[in-house]
Design brief:
590 residues; Beta-Lactamase; 5-stranded antiparallel beta sheet; 5 domains; alpha+beta
């Protein structure tokens, strides 16, 4: 089964590599084509927007120039000049009405000859004024003041409170100019105010080609004075485009981003008044054409990809077929058909592999016979070794015999030590391999302590065990080596030595706490012994205990070191709390 996985993995790698190298030109071509298409579409779209803006801008220039010419006409017309600076003193009311009618007809002429004019209003220094169209007279003192400041130059502004219908105020663009006496240019005779027809402007900005484009008129301060929002076009921007940025891109196009959407801006400078008209467009046409181009490219890429897969698959299968033959013979070898051999043709790498396989098969066939003979000899040696093993119970019986001899000879101390030693070995060799119960571990420790307390320097030994933990399953031979370490290295040189062992449970963990009243320990040195063993085998026992616990339960368990506050050392052993019966090995008592 391993051979097949290897075969398929190699074939897949060859297939993937072949496909990769064939797809590189396809990907590069597609990327180049897409980027070229995007640039071409963007340039075409920019050009169309600039061309459309130029047409609209030229019309707007004409509108502003015509309005300017209309105000200049009023400046030089004798009828306006006479009407604005003198009182009407006709012989009859009829003559007076004729004179006013002539001025009114001139106003109508100026309005009717220019479809972009909505209304014309004049007011003279004599207090007389006229207005045509449906606008009421709206010349105010502010209009007079601003006209005086400009000294005859035209002012373009927006009147936001023009009442065209009852209870309805609208915003209209107007031009105002101070009128002077053409016979004495230093003499002011009146003010003219001309309103643009915004409905006609809206017609100028509205057509089928600009559904996704809105138009805006801004003054020389950058404030939007008029907006033509198309049904699908972008809304008025919350943050207006700076006037300087518009001036920087005159007769060109640039892109801004609003609400994570690209918008194209095409500005056009109108005239001497400093106003700019600009278009704000959503590039839907570019997006649609780009989508169509991408669909075509994707279809082409899929077809090329399928074609590349077919070719790559053929290459990989052709290259792997000789390997399949070798693998088939390997499978026969795996089934112990050691006489199998591969037919070799050619001198390529796969042929070399086949030759090496044949040599290997021949070698294996020769080794099998040798190994068979070696195994027979090994079994014989193992049988002899088993026969030579000493039965542990023979040791128990011998110790019991020495114990009773010491009893008969009236040597109670020797008999007690032999009895403790016998029980010590019996506890050490009993129980499941590697595991015991806390009860057995304590019993084993007690026999050891009895033996140690027969020495010339006796010591005190205290044991505190939670009785509910006696049946818990723990790692074998942990307590006795640690207590032995405390006796040898902790209290060996003091006369009032004391060893305390406490066993309790916390958070489903069993904790051994071994303390002594010796000189204490170097905690960092002891921690280092858990990861190394010195040349004199110092620390071997502690490292062995810690390794056995962590190999069985994990790194969160094991041995920890510390010093008792005041005097002495502390060793803490942590194991998981487990309940379970142990398999006790049968005693060879006979």
């Amino acid at each position: 089964m391993g051979f097949k996985m290897g075969k398929y993995t190699l074939q897949k790698r060859i297939f993937a590599l072949s496909l990769f190298f064939m797809l590189i030109p396809l990907v590069l071509f597609s990327e180049f084509n897409i980027s070229t298409s995007i640039k071409r579409l963007e340039e075409s779209y920019r050009s169309s927007l600039i061309f459309g803006m130029k047409k609209i801008g030229s019309v707007m220039e004409t509108v502003f120039e015509d309005v300017d010419q209309a105000s200049l006409f009023a400046l030089v017309d004798p009828k306006f000049n006479h009407f604005l600076q003198s009182q009407l003193q006709g012989d009859t009311a009829y003559e007076t009405s004729l004179e006013m009618g002539a001025v009114y007809n001139s106003l109508n002429y100026l309005k009717n000859t220019n479809r972009y004019i909505q209304s014309i209003q004049i007011e003279g220094v004599n207090g007389l004024g006229l207005s045509n169209g449906f606008f009421p007279k709206s010349i105010t003192k502010d209009d007079w003041d601003m006209a005086e400041q400009l000294r005859g130059q035209s002012l373009w502004d927006v009147d936001e409170e023009v009442v065209t219908l009852p209870q309805k105020k609208e915003k209209y663009i107007y031009q105002s100019r101070l009128l002077r006496d053409f016979g004495n240019t230093s003499k002011t005779i009146g003010v003219i105010k001309i309103y643009l027809n915004t409905d006609v402007l809206q017609e100028l900005f509205t057509n089928e080609e600009t559904d996704y484009t809105s138009y805006f008129l801004v003054d020389n301060s950058g404030e939007v004075q008029y907006a033509s929002i198309q049904k699908n076009g972008p809304e008025r921007l919350e943050t207006p485009i700076p006037y300087a940025e518009l001036m920087e891109h005159l007769d060109g196009a640039f892109v801004i981003q609003r609400n994570h959407e690209d918008l194209y801006v095409v500005p056009h400078y109108i005239g001497e008044n400093g106003w700019i008209v600009y278009s704000l467009s959503i590039p839907v046409a570019v997006q649609e054409q780009l989508r169509d181009s991408l669909i075509q490219l994707i279809v082409l890429a899929v077809l090329c990809f399928v074609f590349c897969i077919i070719i790559a698959r053929g290459i990989s299968r052709r290259m792997c077929r000789p390997l399949e033959n070798v693998i088939a013979h390997m499978e026969l070898l795996e089934k112990e058909q050691f006489s199998t051999r591969v037919e070799v043709h050619g001198n390529d790498e796969i042929s070399l592999l086949a030759r090496q396989f044949n040599k290997m098969a021949q070698k294996i066939q020769s080794l099998i016979e040798e190994v068979y003979l070696v195994n027979i000899r090994k079994k014989e040696l193992e049988l002899r070794a088993l026969q030579a093993q000493v039965n542990p119970h023979f040791l128990y019986n011998t110790l019991d015999m020495i114990y009773w001899t010491a009893k008969v000879e009236n040597a109670p101390e020797a008999s007690d030590m032999i009895d403790s030693l016998s029980n010590f070995f019996r506890q050490a060799l009993s129980g499941e391999d590697g595991f015991t119960t806390i009860e057995n571990e304590i019993e084993h420790l007690r026999y050891y302590v009895v033996l140690r307390q027969q020495s010339k320097k006796p010591f005190d030994f205290d044991l505190d065990v939670d009785a509910s933990l006696l049946s818990c399953r723990v790692i074998k031979l942990v307590l006795q080596p640690l207590v032995e370490n405390a006796i040898i290295h902790g209290i060996r040189d003091i006369d009032d030595g004391r060893i305390q062992v406490a066993i309790h449970a916390s958070d489903h963990r069993i904790i051994y706490n071994i303390t002594d009243n010796g000189q204490g320990i170097d905690v960092s040195d002891m921690k280092g012994l858990l990861s190394r063993t010195e040349e004199n085998h110092r620390g071997f026992g502690i490292k062995n205990i810690n390794d056995r616990i962590q190999l069985m339960y994990g790194k969160e368990y094991g041995i920890h070191f510390g010093n008792v506050e005041g005097r002495g050392a502390r060793i803490i052993v942590i194991q998981p709390q487990e309940e379970g019966e142990l398999r006790v090995e049968a005693d060879d008592c006979g």
